[in-house]
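Need fresh eyes. Consider my entry:
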Amino acid sequence: TASDEVNTQIDEINKIVADYDENGMLIGEAPCTKDLITITDTDFKVVSAISIVAIFVIIAMVFRSLVLPIILVAVIEFAIFVNMSIPFYTHTSIPFIASIVIGTIQLGATVDYAILTNNYKSARAAGMEKKDAVQHAVASSAQSIVVSALSFFASTFGVGIYSNIDMISSLCILMARGALISMVVVIFVLPA
């Protein structure tokens, strides 16, 4: 109902309807979805920006740093970008609300992995060199990050496979994949 082909068809039909009646309306699931996409596009951008700013402020207050929130949010947003790019490259249709739902949920779930950063800062405060502190942080944080990510993956993947409702299934599969991508990015990219 939200494919490019259907949206093109809706535009063509709306032109024909306008020729006969300026107040005429095309109704149905596809036109309603197209209207929702158009109307909510601005809302989605605002919600995404607010989420990023809120997480940034929280991390800045907790770590008392302006650089760490930039690094952490950038790493998390990279994981979200990777997750959301996979449907494009696999030519998989996803619900129009997927970007906002996945963006906020994956951001919120992944920020818990800041434990790695906390362990790094503690190791540095204890006098360790940067490389040793990073190795210590990964070694001491990896297990809890993996358990958290795999738990989130298992719960969402199960619903994604089981659900007969396309939107729920699609969103849960995206969340499950996002959990794995975030785990890999935080364990392997963030330390770098």
